[in-house]
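Anyone have C-alpha cells for RNA polymerase ECF-type sigma factor? Sequence:
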Amino acid sequence: MTTLEFSYSLNKLTKSLKPFALKLTRDVDDANDLLQDTMVKAFTNKDKFTDGTNLKAWLYTIMKNTFITNYQRMVRRGTFVDTSDNLHFLNSGAVIIENDAYGDFAMNDITRAIANLESVYKDPFMMHFRGFKYHEIADKLQIPIGTVKNRIHIARKLLKDQLSIYQTRN
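Reply: yep, here.
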C-alpha cells in the first residue's frame, strides 16, 4: 500500500474511531487528542502494518494502547514518592487527623439548646425525634394535631437559630 493509499484509508476510518475514543475518555477534547495521537502513531508506523490485514482493528489496538499508556502516565505523575531521609513530606501538616472534639462540642451545644427549650415545644419535639407519629403525640399530650405540628416546627426553628454556628456554607 502506498503512502497516499494508506493516508486515504486512515482518513476514511477516522469517523468510525471517534465513538471508541469518546467511550474511553468520556470527554470530547480528550477524545479528539486520543484520535489525533492514534493517527500520528499509525502514520509513523505504517511500515509495521501488513497489507491484507484489518486496518480498522490495527487502529483500534493502537488507540486502546495509547489510552492505557496515557492513563498510566497520568497516574504516575499524580503519585508522590517521599525520598527524604526522615520522611519529612509524609509527616508534614498536609495530613489531617480528627479526634472527634468538634463532634463532642456540637453534641454538647445541641443537648444544651434542646434543654433550654420551653417544655411546651421540647416535649412534642423530643417525642417526634424518638419516632412518635403526630397523632400519637397529640393523643399523649391531649392537644390538637395541628398544635403538635406547629410546636415541632417552632422548636426546629428555635434550635436552628441557636445552632446557626454549625450551619454549613455552600
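Residues 16 and 56 are 9 Å apart (CA to CA).
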